[in-house]
Write a structure and sequence with these properties.
Distance between the termini: 40 Å
Number of helices: 0
Structural class: mainly beta
Radius of gyration: 13 Å
Largest sheet: 7 strands, mixed
Helix content: under 10%
Order of helices and strands: EEEEEEEEEEE
Number of strands: 11
């Protein structure tokens, strides 16, 4: 089992930046890693994913502003968020999906990001 712990959330003004980190308790090299978010009253939505070969995918709403990356040696995934907007306010969750076993899917506890002046 893989435990995921997010960090780096907080309060930031519009136009500001934050870097989220997701530290895994075990090796992540066989997992597609992702960031999702859930705003109050809304469903959880995909923000970005990164494959085991570093192929990335982004939601249209964050393209050009957010960057996902991974460091397998540190078992850590990052989400660099720039030009933040109030609509980016949400709880951000880290996700790990095993590339071979669909039942092996893990979530972190989430970190709050609030964009407000």
């Amino acid at each position: 089992q893989v435990q995921l712990v997010e960090s780096g959330g907080g309060l930031v003004q519009p136009g500001g930046s934050l870097r989220l980190s997701c530290a895994a308790s075990g090796n992540i090299w066989l997992y597609t890693m992702g960031w999702y978010r859930q705003a109050p009253g809304k469903q959880r939505e995909l923000v970005a994913t990164i494959s085991t070969r570093d192929s990335t995918n982004y939601a249209d709403s964050v393209k050009g502003r957010f960057t996902i990356s991974r460091d397998n040696a540190k078992n850590t995934v990052y989400l660099q968020m720039n030009s933040l907007k109030p609509e980016d306010t949400a709880v951000y969750y880290c996700n790990a999906d095993h590339v071979a076993f669909s039942g092996l899917r893990y979530w972190g506890q989430g970190t709050q990001v609030t964009v407000s002046s």
